[in-house]
Structure formats: C-alpha cells, structure tokens
Amino acid sequence: MFFTPVKAYARGPSIVLVKEAVAKFAGEKIIAVDGYDKIDQERLPGKKITEFKSWGKHFLICFGGFTIKVHFLMFGSYTIDEKKPDRKIKLHLKFRHGEINFYACSLKYLEGDIDKHYDWSVDVMNEHWDKKKAKAKLKAIPNALICDALLDQDIFAGVGNIIKNEVLYRVRVHPESTIGEIPNTKLNKIIGETRNYSFDFLEWKRAYELKKHWLAHTKKECLRCDLPIIKKQTGTKKRRSFICTNCQVLYK
Which of 64, 94, 116 is the last residue of a domain? Predict the structure, then answer.
C-alpha cells in the first residue's frame, strides 16, 4: 500500500512527489471509475492517461483532449494500489495493473490543450521556469511586501510558507521589506534561492528529513546570532513568518 497526505503548505515539491509516485500508470487505460465526486465519471473508462504533470499546487492527470486538475486543499491525500478504509474515496481510478484513490481533494476538468491553461515558466519546479519573468513581475509591484510576493502563485507557482520563510532567512531579508527598496543584487538572490530551496525541499522530502533542515521556520533562536526569532503574521495574507530582526534586514 502507498498512502500519503499531501500537505497544502508544501506546494510544488510535494506535488512533484505525487507525480513521481503515480508515474507507472502513464500510458495505462482506465478500466473502472468510482467515488463520490460529482465530476462526469462516465467519460473516463477506456481513456488512456497520456501523462501526469504538476503546476504549483495542482496535480494534473492528462488525457487526449482534456485534463483532470487535482487540488489537495488542506487535508487531501491519495493511495496507490489499495484503499484507505477509514476515508471516503473522492475518486477511484482502476487500471489493469493497479489503482489510484484520491481523498478530500478538489477535482475539475480542464478542456483542450493543457498548455493553454498554464504558464509553465512561472512554476519554480518546472524546467521552463523563467527567472527573468519573475524579476519583471516583482519590479512591477514595487510597493508590495516580499513576503506576499513570494506566495503569489502568478509569480512563484509552487512556493508555500515554509519556502518563503527559509529563503528570506537564507538571504537575510526581513519578510516585511518593500520590493522597491530591496537592492537589485539582493532581489536576484531571493529569486535564485527560491528555486534552489524548492529543489532542496524536494530532496529532503524524499528522504523524510525535511524538518531537520529548517533554519528559521518554527525555530525560536537564530542560529547565526544566538538571538530570539520572532514569530509574526506578515503581509496581506497574514501568514506566519519567523524573523531574526538582527540579521534579516528590513528594506522599507
């Protein structure tokens, strides 16, 4: 049995892990469908999955001419080749060589070419991610706070709150810094480190040792300064930030 919850805070790296876990079903035809979700299930039997993709927090099951978008929300999960007896199945996909079951998630059909629905260049985990585009979008919102911008899925698809906190600690920038006041070289470091940390996150998640590598998130003391780390809700999104006010510079 393969069961895993997909925490909403993990965003891109965790969805990449889902994609890897179900890869064996690419090219397989669905032979049976069940579950309590209200999407049109009758169109799925006999359809072959062409590929699995991910974009930010979205897991995508692609067919010829349409795609199922899966959003795991706060408590979503999935199993491979076995059902979880204590949870109602949102969508059950049966194949000749196994099955996938989804729980407590949102499901939606996307019609037509999946490339028409997504800009892959804003997904920090995607090979087509474009750091120049990310910087141009940041420059276009000089009055925004960097803590909000890092969570903006139209700029950094796949970035969640942990990544935000760890990146800003790594580059020594206070989360309430105004984008237009952050020096250009420092802004470049934030952009680059966001992608770097996302892939570090993925590797640590694969090894089941993510929390061991946190430097700021949920921590009480700065490892650099031996001073208290402050926990505060920041930005318009009011998400938790963990800040060392001594070494994380406030550009404002």
Answer: 116
